[in-house]
Amino acid sequence: MPETTVDTVACVGAGVIGGGWVAHFLARGFDVRAWDPAPDAAAKLARLVDAAWPALTQLGLAEGASRDRLRITETLAEAVEGAGFVQESAPEDLPLKQKLLADIDAVTPARVVIASSTSGYGMSEMQVAAKTPERLVVGHPFNPPYLIPLVEVVGGRLTAAWAVEQAGEFYRRVGKTVLTMTRDVPGFVANRLQEALWREALHMVANDEATVEQIDLAITDGPGLRWPVQGPMLTFHLAGGEGGMAHMLDHFGPSLKSPWTRLQAPELTPELRDAVVAGCDEEAGSRSIAELVAERDRAIIAIQQAVGEARRG
Amino acid sequence: MPETTVDTVACVGAGVIGGGWVAHFLARGFDVRAWDPAPDAAAKLARLVDAAWPALTQLGLAEGASRDRLRITETLAEAVEGAGFVQESAPEDLPLKQKLLADIDAVTPARVVIASSTSGYGMSEMQVAAKTPERLVVGHPFNPPYLIPLVEVVGGRLTAAWAVEQAGEFYRRVGKTVLTMTRDVPGFVANRLQEALWREALHMVANDEATVEQIDLAITDGPGLRWPVQGPMLTFHLAGGEGGMAHMLDHFGPSLKSPWTRLQAPELTPELRDAVVAGCDEEAGSRSIAELVAERDRAIIAIQQAVGEARRG
Protein backbone atom coordinates (compact mmCIF):
# COMPACT_ATOMS: atom_id res chain seq x y z
CA MET A 1 0.00 0.00 0.00
CA PRO A 2 1.20 3.49 -0.76
CA GLU A 3 2.48 5.86 1.87
CA THR A 4 -0.34 8.10 3.16
CA THR A 5 1.39 10.14 5.84
CA VAL A 6 2.85 13.15 4.13
CA ASP A 7 4.73 15.84 6.00
CA THR A 8 6.92 17.21 3.22
CA VAL A 9 5.61 18.35 -0.16
CA ALA A 10 7.77 19.06 -3.19
CA CYS A 11 6.64 21.83 -5.55
CA VAL A 12 8.30 21.68 -8.95
CA GLY A 13 7.81 24.96 -10.76
CA ALA A 14 7.12 28.05 -8.66
CA GLY A 15 5.32 30.59 -10.85
CA VAL A 16 1.81 31.86 -10.12
CA ILE A 17 0.32 28.38 -9.71
CA GLY A 18 3.30 26.56 -8.22
CA GLY A 19 3.92 29.45 -5.87
CA GLY A 20 0.26 29.43 -4.87
CA TRP A 21 0.57 25.74 -4.01
CA VAL A 22 3.69 26.50 -1.97
CA ALA A 23 1.74 29.08 0.03
CA HIS A 24 -1.14 26.65 0.53
CA PHE A 25 1.01 23.75 1.72
CA LEU A 26 3.01 26.03 4.06
CA ALA A 27 -0.22 27.36 5.57
CA ARG A 28 -1.43 23.81 6.12
CA GLY A 29 1.69 23.09 8.18
CA PHE A 30 3.87 21.16 5.74
CA ASP A 31 7.55 21.39 5.05
CA VAL A 32 7.77 22.53 1.45
CA ARG A 33 10.67 22.16 -0.96
CA ALA A 34 10.46 24.16 -4.15
CA TRP A 35 12.53 23.95 -7.27
CA ASP A 36 12.26 26.23 -10.31
CA PRO A 37 15.02 26.72 -12.88
CA ALA A 38 14.15 30.37 -13.63
CA PRO A 39 16.89 32.73 -12.40
CA ASP A 40 14.48 35.09 -10.58
CA ALA A 41 12.22 32.31 -9.25
CA ALA A 42 13.25 32.59 -5.59
CA ALA A 43 12.55 36.32 -5.32
CA LYS A 44 9.20 36.01 -7.15
CA LEU A 45 8.19 33.09 -4.96
CA ALA A 46 9.03 35.03 -1.79
CA ARG A 47 6.86 37.94 -2.97
CA LEU A 48 4.02 35.60 -3.86
CA VAL A 49 4.05 33.81 -0.50
CA ASP A 50 4.25 37.16 1.31
CA ALA A 51 1.27 38.45 -0.68
CA ALA A 52 -0.77 35.33 0.13
CA TRP A 53 0.12 35.11 3.82
CA PRO A 54 -2.34 37.73 5.18
CA ALA A 55 -5.25 35.88 3.54
CA LEU A 56 -3.97 32.55 4.81
CA THR A 57 -3.49 33.94 8.31
CA GLN A 58 -7.04 35.29 8.24
CA LEU A 59 -8.32 31.86 7.25
CA GLY A 60 -6.36 30.26 10.07
CA LEU A 61 -2.94 28.62 9.79
CA ALA A 62 -2.41 24.99 10.76
CA GLU A 63 -0.46 24.35 13.95
CA GLY A 64 3.22 24.94 13.34
CA ALA A 65 2.68 26.49 9.91
CA SER A 66 5.45 28.86 8.99
CA ARG A 67 6.94 30.55 5.99
CA ASP A 68 10.31 29.45 7.36
CA ARG A 69 9.48 25.87 6.48
CA LEU A 70 10.03 26.60 2.80
CA ARG A 71 13.32 25.50 1.28
CA ILE A 72 14.25 26.47 -2.24
CA THR A 73 16.53 23.80 -3.64
CA GLU A 74 19.29 23.94 -6.23
CA THR A 75 18.28 20.72 -7.92
CA LEU A 76 15.16 18.75 -8.67
CA ALA A 77 16.53 15.73 -6.80
CA GLU A 78 16.94 17.74 -3.59
CA ALA A 79 13.37 19.02 -3.88
CA VAL A 80 11.76 15.58 -4.02
CA GLU A 81 14.06 13.98 -1.44
CA GLY A 82 11.90 12.88 1.46
CA ALA A 83 8.74 14.38 -0.04
CA GLY A 84 5.52 12.42 0.41
CA PHE A 85 3.73 14.20 -2.44
CA VAL A 86 5.00 16.03 -5.51
CA GLN A 87 3.08 18.86 -7.23
CA GLU A 88 4.37 19.83 -10.68
CA SER A 89 3.37 23.29 -11.97
CA ALA A 90 5.62 23.95 -14.94
CA PRO A 91 4.66 26.06 -17.98
CA GLU A 92 1.90 24.69 -20.20
CA ASP A 93 4.06 23.03 -22.87
CA LEU A 94 3.55 19.35 -23.65
CA PRO A 95 7.14 18.27 -24.53
CA LEU A 96 8.41 20.19 -21.49
CA LYS A 97 5.84 18.50 -19.22
CA GLN A 98 6.63 15.04 -20.66
CA LYS A 99 10.34 15.48 -20.03
CA LEU A 100 9.93 17.11 -16.62
CA LEU A 101 7.52 14.45 -15.37
CA ALA A 102 9.97 11.75 -16.54
CA ASP A 103 12.78 13.59 -14.71
CA ILE A 104 10.71 13.87 -11.51
CA ASP A 105 9.69 10.24 -11.85
CA ALA A 106 13.33 9.16 -12.15
CA VAL A 107 14.37 10.71 -8.82
CA THR A 108 11.22 10.13 -6.72
CA PRO A 109 10.56 6.88 -4.79
CA ALA A 110 8.09 4.74 -6.70
CA ARG A 111 5.12 4.92 -4.33
CA VAL A 112 5.04 8.71 -4.04
CA VAL A 113 2.24 10.31 -6.06
CA ILE A 114 3.30 12.97 -8.55
CA ALA A 115 0.50 15.36 -9.54
CA SER A 116 0.54 17.81 -12.42
CA SER A 117 -1.21 21.18 -12.21
CA THR A 118 -1.70 21.15 -16.00
CA SER A 119 -4.64 23.26 -17.14
CA GLY A 120 -5.74 20.86 -19.80
CA TYR A 121 -3.32 18.20 -21.03
CA GLY A 122 -4.41 14.68 -20.33
CA MET A 123 -2.11 12.55 -18.19
CA SER A 124 -2.18 9.89 -20.92
CA GLU A 125 -0.25 12.23 -23.21
CA MET A 126 2.05 13.55 -20.48
CA GLN A 127 3.14 10.30 -18.82
CA VAL A 128 4.61 8.69 -21.93
CA ALA A 129 8.29 9.14 -21.02
CA ALA A 130 8.09 8.13 -17.34
CA LYS A 131 9.42 4.79 -16.08
CA THR A 132 6.79 4.42 -13.33
CA PRO A 133 3.82 6.21 -14.87
CA GLU A 134 1.28 4.49 -12.60
CA ARG A 135 1.73 7.13 -9.87
CA LEU A 136 1.31 10.12 -12.19
CA VAL A 137 -2.01 11.98 -11.93
CA VAL A 138 -3.49 15.31 -12.88
CA GLY A 139 -4.24 17.53 -9.85
CA HIS A 140 -5.52 20.66 -11.50
CA PRO A 141 -6.08 23.66 -9.18
CA PHE A 142 -7.48 27.13 -9.77
CA ASN A 143 -5.75 30.40 -9.22
CA PRO A 144 -5.05 31.14 -6.43
CA PRO A 145 -4.53 27.53 -5.28
CA TYR A 146 -4.34 28.72 -1.66
CA LEU A 147 -7.95 30.01 -1.76
CA ILE A 148 -9.99 28.34 -4.50
CA PRO A 149 -10.99 24.90 -3.18
CA LEU A 150 -11.44 23.00 -6.45
CA VAL A 151 -8.86 20.45 -7.56
CA GLU A 152 -9.70 18.21 -10.51
CA VAL A 153 -8.12 14.79 -10.23
CA VAL A 154 -7.84 12.34 -13.11
CA GLY A 155 -5.40 9.65 -14.13
CA GLY A 156 -4.02 8.70 -17.52
CA ARG A 157 -4.16 5.39 -19.35
CA LEU A 158 -1.14 4.12 -17.41
CA THR A 159 -2.14 5.53 -14.00
CA ALA A 160 -3.07 3.09 -11.23
CA ALA A 161 -6.36 3.46 -9.37
CA TRP A 162 -4.51 3.73 -6.03
CA ALA A 163 -2.67 6.85 -7.20
CA VAL A 164 -5.90 8.64 -8.20
CA GLU A 165 -7.45 7.64 -4.89
CA GLN A 166 -4.44 8.70 -2.85
CA ALA A 167 -4.20 12.07 -4.60
CA GLY A 168 -7.88 12.71 -3.84
CA GLU A 169 -7.38 11.76 -0.19
CA PHE A 170 -4.33 13.99 0.12
CA TYR A 171 -6.05 17.02 -1.40
CA ARG A 172 -9.10 16.53 0.79
CA ARG A 173 -6.85 16.36 3.83
CA VAL A 174 -5.37 19.74 2.90
CA GLY A 175 -8.82 21.33 2.60
CA LYS A 176 -9.56 21.00 -1.08
CA THR A 177 -12.82 20.19 -2.89
CA VAL A 178 -11.91 17.23 -5.06
CA LEU A 179 -13.62 16.51 -8.36
CA THR A 180 -12.46 13.07 -9.51
CA MET A 181 -13.04 12.36 -13.18
CA THR A 182 -13.15 8.86 -14.57
CA ARG A 183 -12.46 10.03 -18.12
CA ASP A 184 -9.53 12.04 -19.35
CA VAL A 185 -11.35 14.86 -21.18
CA PRO A 186 -9.17 17.75 -22.47
CA GLY A 187 -9.59 20.75 -20.16
CA PHE A 188 -11.33 18.59 -17.52
CA VAL A 189 -14.62 20.10 -16.31
CA ALA A 190 -14.09 23.62 -14.99
CA ASN A 191 -11.67 24.76 -17.67
CA ARG A 192 -13.93 23.51 -20.44
CA LEU A 193 -16.71 25.67 -19.01
CA GLN A 194 -14.47 28.63 -18.29
CA GLU A 195 -12.73 28.33 -21.66
CA ALA A 196 -16.03 28.43 -23.56
CA LEU A 197 -16.88 31.69 -21.81
CA TRP A 198 -13.36 33.07 -22.36
CA ARG A 199 -13.35 32.25 -26.08
CA GLU A 200 -16.75 33.87 -26.55
CA ALA A 201 -15.40 36.93 -24.71
CA LEU A 202 -12.37 37.09 -27.03
CA HIS A 203 -14.64 36.84 -30.08
CA MET A 204 -16.67 39.76 -28.74
CA VAL A 205 -13.57 41.91 -28.28
CA ALA A 206 -12.22 40.88 -31.69
CA ASN A 207 -15.53 41.89 -33.32
CA ASP A 208 -16.02 45.15 -31.38
CA GLU A 209 -19.19 43.76 -29.85
CA ALA A 210 -18.10 44.54 -26.27
CA THR A 211 -15.15 46.07 -24.49
CA VAL A 212 -12.95 44.27 -21.96
CA GLU A 213 -14.57 46.31 -19.20
CA GLN A 214 -18.13 45.58 -20.37
CA ILE A 215 -17.35 41.87 -20.42
CA ASP A 216 -16.12 41.95 -16.85
CA LEU A 217 -19.05 44.09 -15.70
CA ALA A 218 -21.49 41.72 -17.40
CA ILE A 219 -20.13 38.90 -15.23
CA THR A 220 -19.31 40.61 -11.90
CA ASP A 221 -22.66 42.41 -11.74
CA GLY A 222 -24.62 39.68 -13.52
CA PRO A 223 -24.46 35.88 -13.49
CA GLY A 224 -21.13 35.94 -11.63
CA LEU A 225 -23.02 36.83 -8.46
CA ARG A 226 -24.99 33.59 -8.62
CA TRP A 227 -22.23 31.12 -9.46
CA PRO A 228 -20.48 30.87 -6.08
CA VAL A 229 -23.74 29.71 -4.51
CA GLN A 230 -25.43 27.78 -7.31
CA GLY A 231 -23.63 26.55 -10.40
CA PRO A 232 -25.04 26.94 -13.91
CA MET A 233 -27.33 23.95 -13.54
CA LEU A 234 -29.04 24.89 -10.27
CA THR A 235 -29.14 28.50 -11.47
CA PHE A 236 -31.31 27.47 -14.39
CA HIS A 237 -33.28 25.11 -12.15
CA LEU A 238 -34.44 28.32 -10.42
CA ALA A 239 -34.95 30.16 -13.71
CA GLY A 240 -37.80 27.73 -14.34
CA GLY A 241 -39.79 29.10 -11.40
CA GLU A 242 -41.90 26.60 -9.51
CA GLY A 243 -41.52 24.15 -12.43
CA GLY A 244 -37.73 23.99 -12.02
CA MET A 245 -35.33 22.74 -14.67
CA ALA A 246 -38.06 20.75 -16.44
CA HIS A 247 -40.04 23.91 -17.10
CA MET A 248 -36.89 25.82 -17.95
CA LEU A 249 -35.78 23.34 -20.64
CA ASP A 250 -39.28 22.94 -22.08
CA HIS A 251 -39.67 26.74 -22.19
CA PHE A 252 -36.18 27.97 -23.14
CA GLY A 253 -35.14 24.87 -25.10
CA PRO A 254 -35.61 26.68 -28.43
CA SER A 255 -33.06 29.30 -27.28
CA LEU A 256 -30.40 26.63 -27.75
CA LYS A 257 -30.87 27.18 -31.48
CA SER A 258 -30.45 30.95 -31.15
CA PRO A 259 -27.19 32.55 -32.29
CA TRP A 260 -26.49 33.72 -28.71
CA THR A 261 -22.94 32.46 -28.74
CA ARG A 262 -20.65 31.00 -31.37
CA LEU A 263 -20.89 27.60 -29.69
CA GLN A 264 -23.46 25.24 -31.20
CA ALA A 265 -25.56 23.49 -28.59
CA PRO A 266 -26.12 19.74 -28.53
CA GLU A 267 -29.50 18.45 -29.67
CA LEU A 268 -31.87 18.68 -26.71
CA THR A 269 -33.02 15.07 -26.97
CA PRO A 270 -35.56 13.70 -24.47
CA GLU A 271 -32.65 11.74 -22.93
CA LEU A 272 -30.53 14.85 -22.40
CA ARG A 273 -33.51 16.80 -21.06
CA ASP A 274 -34.32 14.03 -18.60
CA ALA A 275 -30.68 13.63 -17.53
CA VAL A 276 -30.37 17.34 -16.75
CA VAL A 277 -33.70 17.42 -14.89
CA ALA A 278 -32.82 14.31 -12.87
CA GLY A 279 -29.35 15.70 -12.09
CA CYS A 280 -30.85 18.93 -10.76
CA ASP A 281 -33.35 17.03 -8.63
CA GLU A 282 -30.54 14.91 -7.23
CA GLU A 283 -28.35 17.90 -6.53
CA ALA A 284 -31.19 19.85 -4.93
CA GLY A 285 -31.85 16.85 -2.67
CA SER A 286 -34.42 17.68 -0.03
CA ARG A 287 -34.27 21.42 -0.72
CA SER A 288 -37.45 22.75 -2.36
CA ILE A 289 -37.32 25.44 -5.03
CA ALA A 290 -38.51 27.93 -2.39
CA GLU A 291 -35.68 26.94 -0.07
CA LEU A 292 -33.14 27.20 -2.88
CA VAL A 293 -34.47 30.66 -3.75
CA ALA A 294 -34.11 31.77 -0.13
CA GLU A 295 -30.57 30.32 0.03
CA ARG A 296 -29.60 32.03 -3.21
CA ASP A 297 -31.03 35.36 -2.13
CA ARG A 298 -29.24 35.32 1.23
CA ALA A 299 -25.99 34.41 -0.52
CA ILE A 300 -26.23 37.04 -3.26
CA ILE A 301 -26.81 39.81 -0.73
CA ALA A 302 -23.89 38.65 1.39
CA ILE A 303 -21.64 38.20 -1.67
CA GLN A 304 -22.36 41.75 -2.81
CA GLN A 305 -21.60 43.11 0.63
CA ALA A 306 -18.40 41.05 0.80
CA VAL A 307 -17.21 42.23 -2.62
CA GLY A 308 -18.03 45.85 -1.79
CA GLU A 309 -16.00 45.66 1.41
CA ALA A 310 -13.08 43.89 -0.29
CA ARG A 311 -12.96 46.61 -2.95
CA ARG A 312 -12.96 49.36 -0.35
CA GLY A 313 -9.93 47.63 1.23
CA MET B 1 -38.20 66.04 -23.92
CA PRO B 2 -39.46 62.77 -22.53
CA GLU B 3 -41.01 62.45 -19.10
CA THR B 4 -38.37 61.49 -16.52
CA THR B 5 -40.36 61.45 -13.28
CA VAL B 6 -41.77 58.01 -12.91
CA ASP B 7 -43.84 56.97 -9.94
CA THR B 8 -45.86 54.15 -11.46
CA VAL B 9 -44.33 51.22 -13.33
CA ALA B 10 -46.30 48.75 -15.44
CA CYS B 11 -45.06 45.15 -15.53
CA VAL B 12 -46.48 43.16 -18.43
CA GLY B 13 -45.93 39.46 -17.83
CA ALA B 14 -45.49 38.31 -14.24
CA GLY B 15 -43.60 35.03 -14.30
CA VAL B 16 -40.17 34.53 -12.69
CA ILE B 17 -38.62 37.57 -14.38
CA GLY B 18 -41.67 39.86 -14.54
CA GLY B 19 -42.52 38.98 -10.95
CA GLY B 20 -38.95 39.69 -9.90
CA TRP B 21 -39.21 43.12 -11.51
CA VAL B 22 -42.51 43.69 -9.64
CA ALA B 23 -40.75 42.91 -6.35
CA HIS B 24 -37.85 45.20 -7.23
CA PHE B 25 -40.03 48.18 -8.21
CA LEU B 26 -42.24 47.75 -5.12
CA ALA B 27 -39.15 47.70 -2.89
CA ARG B 28 -37.91 50.88 -4.52
CA GLY B 29 -41.15 52.63 -3.56
CA PHE B 30 -43.09 52.61 -6.82
CA ASP B 31 -46.74 51.93 -7.50
CA VAL B 32 -46.71 48.82 -9.67
CA ARG B 33 -49.42 47.58 -12.00
CA ALA B 34 -49.02 44.06 -13.28
CA TRP B 35 -50.86 42.27 -16.04
CA ASP B 36 -50.45 38.63 -17.03
CA PRO B 37 -53.02 36.61 -18.97
CA ALA B 38 -52.17 33.27 -17.28
CA PRO B 39 -55.05 32.06 -15.08
CA ASP B 40 -52.85 31.38 -12.02
CA ALA B 41 -50.64 34.44 -12.49
CA ALA B 42 -51.93 36.43 -9.51
CA ALA B 43 -51.34 33.65 -6.97
CA LYS B 44 -47.87 32.86 -8.37
CA LEU B 45 -46.95 36.54 -8.33
CA ALA B 46 -48.04 36.91 -4.71
CA ARG B 47 -45.87 33.94 -3.71
CA LEU B 48 -42.92 35.31 -5.64
CA VAL B 49 -43.15 38.77 -4.07
CA ASP B 50 -43.57 37.21 -0.61
CA ALA B 51 -40.47 35.06 -1.18
CA ALA B 52 -38.44 38.08 -2.30
CA TRP B 53 -39.57 40.45 0.43
CA PRO B 54 -37.28 39.27 3.27
CA ALA B 55 -34.21 39.81 1.06
CA LEU B 56 -35.48 43.20 -0.05
CA THR B 57 -36.26 44.21 3.52
CA GLN B 58 -32.75 43.18 4.55
CA LEU B 59 -31.32 45.32 1.77
CA GLY B 60 -33.43 48.27 2.87
CA LEU B 61 -36.77 49.32 1.42
CA ALA B 62 -37.29 52.77 -0.08
CA GLU B 63 -39.45 55.17 1.91
CA GLY B 64 -43.11 54.27 1.52
CA ALA B 65 -42.33 50.97 -0.20
CA SER B 66 -45.10 48.45 0.32
CA ARG B 67 -46.41 45.23 -1.15
CA ASP B 68 -49.84 46.88 -0.96
CA ARG B 69 -48.86 49.20 -3.76
CA LEU B 70 -49.18 46.36 -6.29
CA ARG B 71 -52.32 46.25 -8.39
CA ILE B 72 -53.01 43.31 -10.64
CA THR B 73 -55.11 44.51 -13.54
CA GLU B 74 -57.70 42.77 -15.69
CA THR B 75 -56.48 44.31 -18.92
CA LEU B 76 -53.26 45.48 -20.49
CA ALA B 77 -54.69 48.99 -20.96
CA GLU B 78 -55.38 49.34 -17.22
CA ALA B 79 -51.81 48.24 -16.42
CA VAL B 80 -50.12 50.91 -18.51
CA GLU B 81 -52.55 53.69 -17.62
CA GLY B 82 -50.58 56.40 -15.83
CA ALA B 83 -47.37 54.37 -15.88
CA GLY B 84 -44.12 56.28 -16.49
CA PHE B 85 -42.19 53.16 -17.51
CA VAL B 86 -43.29 49.80 -18.91
CA GLN B 87 -41.32 46.57 -18.41
CA GLU B 88 -42.39 43.66 -20.63
CA SER B 89 -41.38 40.16 -19.49
CA ALA B 90 -43.44 37.77 -21.60
CA PRO B 91 -42.31 34.28 -22.66
CA GLU B 92 -39.36 34.08 -25.05
CA ASP B 93 -41.27 33.71 -28.32
CA LEU B 94 -40.63 36.16 -31.14
CA PRO B 95 -44.10 36.40 -32.74
CA LEU B 96 -45.65 36.69 -29.27
CA LYS B 97 -43.20 39.48 -28.31
CA GLN B 98 -43.80 41.32 -31.61
CA LYS B 99 -47.57 41.28 -31.11
CA LEU B 100 -47.44 42.07 -27.40
CA LEU B 101 -45.05 45.00 -27.85
CA ALA B 102 -47.34 46.36 -30.58
CA ASP B 103 -50.32 45.95 -28.23
CA ILE B 104 -48.50 47.73 -25.38
CA ASP B 105 -47.36 50.43 -27.78
CA ALA B 106 -50.94 51.00 -28.94
CA VAL B 107 -52.26 51.78 -25.45
CA THR B 108 -49.27 53.61 -23.92
CA PRO B 109 -48.67 57.37 -24.33
CA ALA B 110 -45.99 57.95 -26.96
CA ARG B 111 -43.22 59.34 -24.76
CA VAL B 112 -43.26 56.51 -22.21
CA VAL B 113 -40.36 54.08 -22.64
CA ILE B 114 -41.30 50.43 -23.06
CA ALA B 115 -38.50 48.00 -22.18
CA SER B 116 -38.40 44.31 -22.97
CA SER B 117 -36.75 41.79 -20.63
CA THR B 118 -35.99 39.51 -23.60
CA SER B 119 -33.03 37.23 -23.03
CA GLY B 120 -31.68 37.55 -26.50
CA TYR B 121 -33.95 38.84 -29.27
CA GLY B 122 -32.82 42.09 -30.80
CA MET B 123 -35.22 45.01 -30.54
CA SER B 124 -34.89 45.47 -34.33
CA GLU B 125 -36.69 42.17 -34.86
CA MET B 126 -39.21 42.73 -32.05
CA GLN B 127 -40.34 46.28 -32.80
CA VAL B 128 -41.56 45.65 -36.34
CA ALA B 129 -45.29 45.74 -35.60
CA ALA B 130 -45.32 48.79 -33.30
CA LYS B 131 -46.66 52.19 -34.45
CA THR B 132 -44.21 54.21 -32.29
CA PRO B 133 -41.20 51.93 -32.21
CA GLU B 134 -38.79 54.73 -31.28
CA ARG B 135 -39.49 54.29 -27.53
CA LEU B 136 -38.99 50.52 -27.54
CA VAL B 137 -35.76 49.30 -25.95
CA VAL B 138 -34.28 46.10 -24.57
CA GLY B 139 -33.82 46.21 -20.78
CA HIS B 140 -32.48 42.74 -20.07
CA PRO B 141 -32.18 41.79 -16.38
CA PHE B 142 -30.81 38.71 -14.63
CA ASN B 143 -32.68 36.42 -12.33
CA PRO B 144 -33.58 37.50 -9.72
CA PRO B 145 -34.09 41.05 -11.05
CA TYR B 146 -34.56 42.30 -7.49
CA LEU B 147 -31.00 41.31 -6.52
CA ILE B 148 -28.72 41.01 -9.55
CA PRO B 149 -27.74 44.58 -10.53
CA LEU B 150 -27.01 44.09 -14.23
CA VAL B 151 -29.44 45.40 -16.85
CA GLU B 152 -28.34 45.39 -20.49
CA VAL B 153 -29.85 48.25 -22.47
CA VAL B 154 -29.86 48.43 -26.25
CA GLY B 155 -32.16 49.88 -28.87
CA GLY B 156 -33.25 48.53 -32.23
CA ARG B 157 -32.92 50.05 -35.68
CA LEU B 158 -36.03 52.17 -35.13
CA THR B 159 -35.30 53.15 -31.51
CA ALA B 160 -34.51 56.79 -30.74
CA ALA B 161 -31.37 57.70 -28.79
CA TRP B 162 -33.47 59.47 -26.13
CA ALA B 163 -35.29 56.25 -25.29
CA VAL B 164 -32.04 54.30 -24.77
CA GLU B 165 -30.71 57.13 -22.63
CA GLN B 166 -33.88 57.48 -20.60
CA ALA B 167 -34.08 53.74 -19.95
CA GLY B 168 -30.48 53.79 -18.69
CA GLU B 169 -31.23 56.74 -16.41
CA PHE B 170 -34.34 55.10 -15.04
CA TYR B 171 -32.58 51.80 -14.28
CA ARG B 172 -29.68 53.59 -12.62
CA ARG B 173 -32.17 55.53 -10.50
CA VAL B 174 -33.66 52.24 -9.27
CA GLY B 175 -30.24 50.90 -8.29
CA LYS B 176 -29.22 48.94 -11.35
CA THR B 177 -25.83 48.54 -13.02
CA VAL B 178 -26.49 49.55 -16.63
CA LEU B 179 -24.54 48.15 -19.55
CA THR B 180 -25.53 50.14 -22.63
CA MET B 181 -24.68 48.48 -25.93
CA THR B 182 -24.37 50.41 -29.15
CA ARG B 183 -24.83 47.30 -31.30
CA ASP B 184 -27.72 44.91 -31.26
CA VAL B 185 -25.83 41.59 -30.85
CA PRO B 186 -27.99 38.47 -30.26
CA GLY B 187 -27.82 37.50 -26.58
CA PHE B 188 -26.22 40.85 -25.68
CA VAL B 189 -23.06 40.48 -23.58
CA ALA B 190 -23.77 38.48 -20.42
CA ASN B 191 -26.02 35.89 -22.02
CA ARG B 192 -23.53 35.25 -24.81
CA LEU B 193 -20.91 34.46 -22.17
CA GLN B 194 -23.27 32.50 -19.95
CA GLU B 195 -24.75 30.65 -22.92
CA ALA B 196 -21.33 29.50 -24.13
CA LEU B 197 -20.69 27.99 -20.70
CA TRP B 198 -24.20 26.47 -20.56
CA ARG B 199 -23.91 24.86 -23.99
CA GLU B 200 -20.53 23.37 -23.14
CA ALA B 201 -22.09 22.03 -19.92
CA LEU B 202 -24.94 20.43 -21.88
CA HIS B 203 -22.46 18.82 -24.28
CA MET B 204 -20.60 17.38 -21.29
CA VAL B 205 -23.77 15.86 -19.84
CA ALA B 206 -24.85 14.59 -23.26
CA ASN B 207 -21.45 12.87 -23.70
CA ASP B 208 -21.20 11.47 -20.15
CA GLU B 209 -18.10 13.59 -19.54
CA ALA B 210 -19.48 15.10 -16.33
CA THR B 211 -22.59 14.90 -14.20
CA VAL B 212 -24.90 17.82 -13.45
CA GLU B 213 -23.55 17.92 -9.92
CA GLN B 214 -19.89 17.87 -11.04
CA ILE B 215 -20.58 20.78 -13.38
CA ASP B 216 -22.06 22.84 -10.60
CA LEU B 217 -19.28 21.92 -8.17
CA ALA B 218 -16.66 22.83 -10.79
CA ILE B 219 -18.10 26.35 -10.88
CA THR B 220 -19.22 26.99 -7.28
CA ASP B 221 -15.92 25.76 -5.82
CA GLY B 222 -13.77 26.89 -8.73
CA PRO B 223 -13.83 29.92 -11.04
CA GLY B 224 -17.29 30.93 -9.77
CA LEU B 225 -15.66 32.20 -6.58
CA ARG B 226 -13.59 34.72 -8.53
CA TRP B 227 -16.22 36.07 -10.89
CA PRO B 228 -18.21 38.31 -8.51
CA VAL B 229 -15.04 40.26 -7.73
CA GLN B 230 -13.11 40.13 -11.01
CA GLY B 231 -14.64 39.16 -14.33
CA PRO B 232 -13.00 36.75 -16.77
CA MET B 233 -10.67 39.42 -18.13
CA LEU B 234 -9.23 40.70 -14.84
CA THR B 235 -9.13 37.11 -13.58
CA PHE B 236 -6.73 36.20 -16.37
CA HIS B 237 -4.88 39.50 -15.89
CA LEU B 238 -3.92 38.03 -12.49
CA ALA B 239 -3.21 34.58 -13.94
CA GLY B 240 -0.27 36.21 -15.71
CA GLY B 241 1.48 36.96 -12.42
CA GLU B 242 3.49 40.15 -12.30
CA GLY B 243 3.37 40.30 -16.10
CA GLY B 244 -0.42 40.58 -16.14
CA MET B 245 -2.60 39.90 -19.18
CA ALA B 246 0.31 40.48 -21.59
CA HIS B 247 2.26 37.61 -20.05
CA MET B 248 -0.87 35.49 -19.80
CA LEU B 249 -1.72 35.81 -23.50
CA ASP B 250 1.87 35.33 -24.62
CA HIS B 251 2.19 32.27 -22.39
CA PHE B 252 -1.24 30.63 -22.66
CA GLY B 253 -2.07 31.87 -26.16
CA PRO B 254 -1.41 28.42 -27.66
CA SER B 255 -4.09 26.99 -25.34
CA LEU B 256 -6.66 28.73 -27.52
CA LYS B 257 -5.95 26.04 -30.10
CA SER B 258 -6.48 23.24 -27.57
CA PRO B 259 -9.67 21.20 -27.72
CA TRP B 260 -10.66 22.42 -24.23
CA THR B 261 -14.17 23.31 -25.30
CA ARG B 262 -16.22 22.83 -28.42
CA LEU B 263 -16.03 26.55 -29.15
CA GLN B 264 -13.31 27.56 -31.60
CA ALA B 265 -11.34 30.59 -30.44
CA PRO B 266 -10.69 33.62 -32.64
CA GLU B 267 -7.22 34.03 -34.07
CA LEU B 268 -5.07 35.71 -31.42
CA THR B 269 -3.82 38.45 -33.73
CA PRO B 270 -1.43 41.13 -32.41
CA GLU B 271 -4.39 43.54 -32.59
CA LEU B 272 -6.62 41.33 -30.43
CA ARG B 273 -3.81 40.68 -27.98
CA ASP B 274 -3.10 44.41 -27.65
CA ALA B 275 -6.79 45.27 -27.31
CA VAL B 276 -7.25 42.79 -24.46
CA VAL B 277 -4.08 43.94 -22.70
CA ALA B 278 -5.02 47.62 -23.06
CA GLY B 279 -8.56 46.90 -21.87
CA CYS B 280 -7.25 45.20 -18.73
CA ASP B 281 -4.87 48.05 -18.01
CA GLU B 282 -7.70 50.52 -18.40
CA GLU B 283 -10.03 48.50 -16.19
CA ALA B 284 -7.36 48.01 -13.52
CA GLY B 285 -6.78 51.77 -13.52
CA SER B 286 -4.43 52.79 -10.75
CA ARG B 287 -4.62 49.40 -9.04
CA SER B 288 -1.37 47.42 -9.29
CA ILE B 289 -1.36 43.66 -9.78
CA ALA B 290 -0.43 43.31 -6.08
CA GLU B 291 -3.41 45.46 -5.05
CA LEU B 292 -5.75 43.47 -7.31
CA VAL B 293 -4.43 40.23 -5.79
CA ALA B 294 -5.09 41.54 -2.29
CA GLU B 295 -8.58 42.70 -3.29
CA ARG B 296 -9.36 39.35 -4.89
CA ASP B 297 -8.10 37.40 -1.89
CA ARG B 298 -10.13 39.44 0.60
CA ALA B 299 -13.21 39.01 -1.57
CA ILE B 300 -12.84 35.27 -2.13
CA ILE B 301 -12.52 34.61 1.60
CA ALA B 302 -15.55 36.77 2.35
CA ILE B 303 -17.56 35.19 -0.49
CA GLN B 304 -16.85 31.70 0.81
CA GLN B 305 -17.89 32.70 4.32
CA ALA B 306 -21.04 34.36 2.95
CA VAL B 307 -22.01 31.32 0.88
CA GLY B 308 -21.34 28.98 3.81
CA GLU B 309 -23.60 31.03 6.06
CA ALA B 310 -26.34 31.31 3.43
CA ARG B 311 -26.33 27.54 2.97
CA ARG B 312 -26.62 26.95 6.70
CA GLY B 313 -29.66 29.25 6.67
Automatic annotation (TrEMBL), chains A, B:
Ranges where the 3-hydroxyacyl-CoA dehydrogenase NAD binding domain occurs: 8-184
Task: Family membership, please give it.
Answer: Belongs to the 3-hydroxyacyl-CoA dehydrogenase family.
Q: Does the keyword Oxidoreductase apply?
A: yes
Instruction: Give the source's domain of life in one word.
Output: Bacteria
Entry protein name: Carnitine 3-dehydrogenase
Gene Ontology MF term list: NAD+ binding; oxidoreductase activity, acting on the CH-OH group of donors, NAD or NADP as acceptor
Keywords assigned: Oxidoreductase
Instruction: Look up the record and name the pathway of this protein.
Output: Lipid metabolism; butanoate metabolism
Q: Name one GO biological process term.
A: fatty acid metabolic process
Coiled coil residues, start to end: none
In this protein, which residues make up the domain named 3-hydroxyacyl-CoA dehydrogenase C-terminal? Answer: 187-255
Q: Which InterPro entries match?
A: 3-OHacyl-CoA_DH_NAD-bd, 3HC_DH_C, 6-PGluconate_DH-like_C_sf, 6PGD_dom2, NAD(P)-bd_dom_sf
